[in-house]
Design goal:
Blueprint: E1 4-8, H1 12-23, E2 27-31, E3 43-45, E4 51-53, H2 62-70, E5 82-84, E6 89-92, E7 97-100, H3 104-114, H4 118-140, H5 154-159, H6 169-174, H7 180-187, H8 206-213, E8 217-219, H9 224-236, E9 240-242, E10 247-253, E11 256-262, E12 265-268, E13 271-274, H10 278-285, H11 295-300, E14 306-314, E15 324-327, H12 332-340, E16 351-354, E17 369-377, H13 385-403, E18 412-418, H14 420-427, E19 459-461, H15 472-488
Parallel strand pairs: 1-2, 1-13, 2-9, 6-15, 13-19
Antiparallel strand pairs: 3-4, 5-8, 6-7, 10-11, 11-12, 14-17, 14-18, 15-16, 16-17
Helix pairs in contact: 1-9, 1-15, 2-15, 3-4, 4-8
Length: 489
């Protein structure tokens, strides 16, 4: 039966849900509160010729993204050119710099140079990580997670012990490597999963495989090209996208969604999929009696970081800088403790610099540089311009030291900051979080917020606060699962 389906929000999960639901022949309408689509993956252009991706910048797990396009009879190359980055990225330590090569054999050589036997240990690590990737990304993440019984298959049961769900990531990495630089390199990918490595299951070594082994890529033109591609597919399948369309309330009649209040108009729908912030959807759009979770529940969840971002345009090229650079001169454990345990502005922060103009001439004027700086921090912090500027000064100083460039600030012709308050204002993000819920063992699979409203049989949720979790590939999968569930009823 053809249904009229509303999707709230147009990030990766919302557009994915819209595309899959429209593919099944349903009448799909996407409502986006902002003036442009993309959610955290929005982009903006400046009057002086810069184009900035506002969110995702790491193109990992290319096979998962390719699988999305394949479901609609396309390839990513039908929409954008994908470039392999070499080096994949650069890590700056207090006493050295490490470039991570694209070719795996070269990576083994690097590991061997840093630590005797490191190449062989990397092989063993990646063999294990590949197994987890193939089981996790092809079996685990595609479940709606209504019940643990969904995981009682022969394949998953046979794999349970090998998935290391009860081993923490920090201990797991140290089984293979001793050099602190290699340890930091292997631990880096889980920072954005929302907890310190000691609190993340070793299952997530699958991220090392999905990144380092499958490579780090860049879509020419920026991540907005992926959003535009998904939008085009959804529209080709019949979905209608409405921008500047704020959903003010979800109205319930006899246990079912009856209407959405959009820009103060009431619109009828048979089913609703919300890819807006889960907490916002429940606390602001639903009456209290229809919510899955109360405020106490959300207060007790472990959230992934927020972040401080600076979008910068320089009117000259910056030497000695790669597309991706990680500034890890300080203690990773201290920074993660201050994010997840103490919850304060960092004492000695780590940060990340992305300079896509090193790869893509289209994102900056000729002879200029497009750069954004990102520093992870605890959600819910008191955000102020003074605090932003304090850390901007530190990041610029460390950037100058690394690139051996004096007075970089004098070459800035565009500057914009983005932090906790902006995540709250633009995305209704709970405590200004940037990356959703932490993927701790107690917040995995069935233990994540439910994909389905338990009191309303035609309201579903998708995105980084429900299954399977944060990140671009998981968001695409989340949209697919939500669409399938919503259209079964």
């Amino acid at each position: 039966m053809k249904k009229k389906i509303a999707v709230i929000g147009s990030g990766f999960s919302g557009l994915s849900a819209a595309a899959y639901a429209a593919k099944q022949g349903h009448d799909v309408h996407v409502f986006e509160k902002n003036s442009e689509i993309g959610g955290r993956a929005r982009h903006f252009k400046t009057d002086n010729g810069y184009t900035f991706d506002m969110g995702p910048s790491w193109y990992w797990m290319p096979d998962i993204i390719e699988s999305f396009f394949s479901d609609f009879g396309y390839k990513s190359s039908d929409f954008y050119e994908l470039v392999s980055l070499n080096p994949q990225f650069e890590m700056v330590f207090s006493d050295s710099v490490m470039n991570i090569p694209h070719e795996y054999d070269d990576m083994k050589i690097l590991f061997e140079e840093i630590e005797k036997g490191g190449g062989e240990q990397l092989d063993l690590f990646m063999k294990d990580a590949r197994y987890k990737y193939e089981i996790g990304m092809k079996n685990f993440v595609n479940k709606p997670c209504h019940s643990w019984f969904e995981f009682f298959s022969f394949t998953i049961a046979k794999s349970a012990l090998k998935l290391d769900l009860l081993t923490d990531f920090k201990s797991f990495v140290r089984k293979y490597f001793n050099d602190p630089r290699l340890i930091m390199l292997m631990e880096f990918p889980v920072i954005f999963l929302g907890a310190a490595p000691k609190d993340i299951p070793a299952l997530y070594s699958l991220m090392n495989y999905g990144g380092y082994k499958l490579g780090t890529w860049y879509p020419m033109g920026g991540f907005s090209k992926i959003i535009e591609a998904i939008k085009r597919i959804a529209q080709e399948k019949g979905a209608t996208i409405h921008c500047n369309a704020s959903v003010n309330k979800i109205n319930i009649v006899e246990g079912k969604v009856s209407t959405l209040e959009v820009n103060n108009q009431f619109l009828d729908f048979d089913t609703v999929i919300s890819s807006a912030d889960y907490h916002h959807t429940e606390s602001q759009l639903l009456e209290k009696k229809f919510r899955n979770y109360d405020e106490y529940y959300w207060e007790k969840r472990v959230f992934a970081p927020s972040c401080l971002i600076y979008y910068l345009g320089f009117n000259r090229k910056i030497p000695n800088l790669k597309h991706h650079t990680l500034f890890f001169e300080h203690d990773l454990d201290l920074h993660t403790e201050e994010i997840y345990t103490i919850k304060k502005w960092p004492t000695a922060p780590l940060f990340y610099a992305c300079c896509p103009s090193k790869t893509d001439d289209s994102v900056a004027p000729e002879g200029a540089e497009n750069l954004f700086l990102l520093m992870p921090l605890a959600p819910g912090l008191q955000d102020s311009e003074a605090m932003r500027e304090k850390y901007f000064e530190e990041m610029i100083s460390r950037l100058e030291k690394h690139t051996n460039t004096n007075n970089l600030k004098s070459f800035i012709e565009y500057k914009r900051s983005y932090c906790v308050n902006d995540f709250q204002d633009d995305y209704n993000a709970y405590k200004g979080n940037a990356y959703g819920l932490a993927n701790t063992l107690k917040q995995t699979a069935v233990l994540k917020p439910s994909l389905k409203n338990k009191k309303i049989n035609n309201l579903f949720y998708t995105g980084q606060l429900t299954v399977p979790g944060p990140g671009v590939p998981p968001a695409l999968i989340s949209g697919k699962i939500a669409a399938l569930e919503a259209t079964l009823k």
